[in-house]
Each structure stands twice: as C-alpha cells, then as structure tokens.
Amino acid sequence: MNDIWAGIEAAFRLIITLDSDLVEITLRSLQVSLSALVIASLIALPFGTWLAIRRFRYRRLTIATLNALMGLPPVVVGLIVYLLLSRSGPFGVLGLLFTPTAMIIAQVIIITPLIASITHQAMRELWAEYHDLLISLNTSKSQRILTLIRDGRRTLLTAALAGFGRAIGEVGAIMIVGGNIDHATRVLTTAIALETGKGDFALALGLGFVLIALALLVNFAIHALSRTEREGRW
Amino acid sequence: MTRFLGAILMLIGVQVHAETMRMAVTTSFHNSGLSDVLLPAIEADTGLEVQLLVVGTGQAIRLGEAGDVDAILVHSKSAEEAFVKGGYGTHRREIMYNDFVLIGPSTDAAKVQEATDAATALRLIHDTQSPFVSRGDDSGTHKKELSLWALTSLDPAQFGDWYNAVGAGMGASLNTAAGLNAYIMADRASWLNFGNKQDLRLLFAGDPVLFNQYAYIPVNPERHAHVNAQATAQLEDWLTSPAASALINGYTIAGEALFTFNATP
Amino acid sequence: MSVTLENVAVKRRGKAILGPVKMALSADGFTIVLGPNGAGKTTLLKVLHGVERLSSGRVTWSVPDEDAREAQAYVFQKPIMLRRSVRQNLAFPLQLLKTPKAEIDTRVTDWSRRIGLEEALDRPATRISGGEQQKLALARALIRDPQVLFLDEPCANLDGRSMREIEELLMASSASGTRIIMTTHDLGQARRLASDVVFLLNGQLCEQADASTFFAAPQSDEARAFLKGDIIE
Fold first, then answer.
1. CA of C190 to nearest chain A CA: how many angstroms apart?
2. Whole-prediction pTM
3. Does residue B22 belong to the interface with chain A, where contact is any CB pair within 8 Å?
4. Mean of all residue pLDDT scores within chain A
C-alpha cells in the first residue's frame, strides 16, 4: 500500500509542478499515439466497412486473418519493424530507426487490425439494416461506404478509441524501435519501464497514473469534440 | 473535427537538433546515474547531443553490427574484441572501470561475508543451495557472472531450483532478488542507485576479478557509411580528456565513488 | 414506361420461388399484386425493380435499364430508417444525385408538410412512430419524382389513421402520373386503390385483369376462393 500512496503522491507532485520532463514525454506519447491512430483509422475504417459490404471469394479467410492479427504480440511487431528499419535492413537508408516515426509505424501495425476488426463487426450489422434501401437507391460502392461510416460513426469512434488505448499503453514494440532515448523517443510507457527497472516504483507508478489520466482525458475530449452525445442515442 | 486533426498534425512536427549521435550503452552504466552528469557536460563542451540507447551488452553489440548506432560503450572485453576483429568497430578504447559486488539477504545464510575471494563466495552460495538470481540475458554482467562460476569449476546449467536465470536487465533482476530475498551479483552503481532494496545488503566486494572495465568503440564508417565518424572521434577525445576524468572520478552516490577513470591519453 | 417479363424464374437453393412468369405491365395505372403468403409477391416486385438475381428469363423496360432504375423508387414493408434526423432522411436520395442544396431544402420542406412531419424535421427518424416512419419512407421514395413506385405491403401493422393518410398520398401521387405497383394482403385496400390486379399463386401468374373485372368476375377458381376468404394452397 505504501508504494501505491507514494505513487499517487508522485503523480500529483509531477502534475502540479508541471515537471518539464513529464510534459515532454507526455506530449510525445500523445504525438506518437494520436498520429498512429489517425493513420490507422484512415486505413482501417474504410477497409473494415468495405469488408462488411463486399462479398468476395477469400472474405472469410481475410476476416479470420484480421481477427488473428488483432492478437499480434507487440514485441514481435517491434522486432520485425526493427529488422526492416535497421541500417542493415531493407529500409535502412531512410534512417527512421529510433525516431518517433518508427514508433508510429509500429503502432499503426499493431492497432490497424484491431480497429478494422471492430469496424467490420459494427458495420456488418448496420449494413444488414441498410442493405435493401441502399441497393434500391442505386448507390455506388463509395456512396455505400460513406453512408455506413457516417451513420456508424459512434461505433467507429469506439473502435478508434480501443485502438488509441492499445497504442498509448503499448511498450514492447516502441521500446525496440524507439529505443527509449531521453529527449528523443522516450514516452510514458517506456519511461515507466525504465523507472521500474531502477526500482523507483513511486515514480513509475506516478507516471502510470498520468498515463491513465491522459487516456481518460483523450476519451472525453474525442467524445466531446465529435458531439456524439448531443445528437441523440444512436 | 478539422480543428482537432489540425492540432494532431501540429504535434507531428519534426524535431530539429544540432549535431547528434547515437550511442548504445549498457543498462548498468545508465542506471548508475553517471550519464545524467556526463551528457550535459558533453553537450556544453562540444555542442554534441549524444542520444543513449540503454540496452544489454548483447543487444548493444547487435545494434553496432547493424550500424544502427554510431558508437557503443560496454563492458565485456571478449565480445568487444570480437566486435572490433569482425570489422564492425574501428578500435577499442578503455575509459573507466567500476566493480561488481555480491548482494544478498541480511541474514546471509551462505556466510558470503566471511569469504576471502569471489569464487569462494559463489561456492558457498552453491553449497548451501541459497536462492540466487542471475541476469541470464547475455549481458556484460551476465557474462561476468558466468566467468566467475567458471573459476569455481561449477556449471550453472546443472544447478537446481535455487538458481534463477530471469533474463532481464539489472534493475528488474534486482527487483526479483529483493522479492525472493535472494543473492545476486550486481555492479556497484546499479546497487547504490537501486530504490527497492528491502532486506538486501552488500555482502562481498573488493576482489580484483570483480573489476568491470568499460570500453568505447566507434562503429566502423567503412562498413556503415552513414555513421557520424566526426562526432564519434569528438566524443572519444572528450571521454579521454581531463574534464571527463574529473567528472567520472568525482561522481559519488551516498558518499561512495563508483567509477575509476583509467583512459590512457 | 411499360415492362415485359419473359419466362422470368427465380430459384434459390433449388427451390422455385417465382415463375416461370410471362406478363406485361402498361405504362400507367395502379397495379395491386395479390396472393397468399409465399406466392412470390415480394420477389416479383424486386424482379421488376431489378434487385433480384434471375435464374432465367428477361425483364425488359421500354427504356434502357439504367434509365429505368433511375426512375424507380421502392418502399419496404418495414420502413428502413437511416440513423439520422427526419430532415436528413428526406434529403438523402437527393444528396446521392448531387442535387443543389437550395433545391433539396425546398423539396424537403414541401414533402415534410405533405406528410405532416414539418414539426419533427430535426427529430431522429428512428424515434418517431411506426406510422410516421412509413409516411417518411414514402415521402423519401417520392422526393425524387419517380416514374414508377413499388410498395411492398406498406400498410402492414399500421393503424387506420396512418393507413388512410398513406392511401391519400398514394392516390394523389397516382393522379399526378406516377406508375404504382404495390403488394397487399388487405382486400379492402386493393378494392379502394387498384386500377388493375395481378394475382399470384405459388410463384405462378394465376390471373391478370382490370380491377373491376377481377373483383366482380374472377376467372379462376383460385381467385374466386381467395376473394371469398378461403384458404388456398
């Protein structure tokens, strides 16, 4: 219990004094995970929707693969991205390893299947509901996808937030591809791993509470910004 | 929503730095806190921003081989020599040393405190089957521990349940030892900086075989053309300078000096 | 526009659902498709609308297929409401056609008045009553001024008042020249609305006639039994 109290104290101390290191790594955590979220959503939302409305030969296989990829161990993703981006790897010339960009790439790979899979589940139901109407109105493929995304935006938001939650709390992959370099690629989760390694549980836990608070804050902010709560219970 | 996206895109700004280089260092070096003293001094004296990748010696050497860092600072002589011999590094420059210590429960069931040398101390732990935590991660510290077992002619592969190879960094291994109230070998710096000591005490130190030499190796630019050779040379000059000597020898935790500067000009 | 069906058949998993059917429908009028459950009424409607895969045969409109689809609208038995406001539901078919915004607004206002929902324009369409939803679905079908309107049991499960309002809308629409093809269970409704009748039984076209002829003197035994209220199979 003492460690937990010390952690809460540490968290308050860090936040109240606006500790400059804390502000820096918090902003970097946000930068990396929100960028990954935007990119992953741009891929996964249309793809998941397309999967829901499109019948093709390997559809079941694609969906099964997607669901399996959802459980990808981040540390394996990190290792693969590391090998690809390493100076000795195929994309070494880009010099991306140990940069926030590399961390964004790894997180996009981790959360895209998750967002696409939840999107597919949600969109399949909505498509069943809208199918006859949209077919009757002679809509094009892209009109169907856009209509479903627009009217299913609340569930899509949930999908995106699940992706964000996984991204911001992820440590295995970004530790490998980011390297946890102070003032360059250190984020909240890798800092927590570092402080735990030093045996400074109070600081580690303090950072953990900041991480939790941040995740809650982003959730509320996105809900408020998209004003979904005010448009009625859909 | 557009404004929100704009805010995110602003966050994705590219950070611009002055001259930077990347160096892979061992966990034990970083956890000692010495890097927090040295890095600002290096930046002030040379304008060089050194980005540290804190990893085990094994991974540090892999990063150097792949050309993902510009230099490495590690402590495992045989691995370092193989690295230079393989053409991955230009040369090996000794900078400083610290020492390893044996940590264990305050009750000291194995009576390690009464041992005369490190090999005897380990043999006592073995004979009493006292719980022992090994890094088990192929790091410099792990290799050192194995070389000490070799001195006792005992084979860790044959050890029973009391020998726990955790496959983790120094801090995580110390956490495990604290939890198990077990013996462990650690570098002095990590031990002094460790915040979760619980019932553990420093029980044995001082045998010369426990000295731990750190060496600096720049990655070979002939193999990896993108390596910042100018920066690695600049850093080497600084690390072997009197300024570095004063900072390294003067660094203390709880009144104890941790490192001894021994670079030859 | 008129349409002809030549030997049209729809089979699903080896089971014949419709046909083979051979029939023609003229370019105007109010056709009621009658028949017991499972006679193939809905399938016939979907075949005409071009959204059902044919196992054999051909449907030929007097205009090219693309133009025919563009000029049709379909109202389902259970209204499909977009999860949007009443206003956005009305505007949706026009937005798909990229109609100018000003015209969309005018037409939406006009139709919301005709169906008595002008006060409810900004309410979620999923939360108005069943009768209001069906009126909204009808207005949404008519807002594009279709030449042909299909309705599949539009008044099933509706109260008398809603049914009356919908029939009034349909008669007005028919009077202004919309070709209407509608299925119903309700013989009373069929008598009130039909100009001609298509009577289906077991996927086959059993009888096709003017409404007055059909109701006064049906030719087939089955139609006679059906009009009498007997169970036929």
1. 24
2. 0.77
3. yes
4. 87
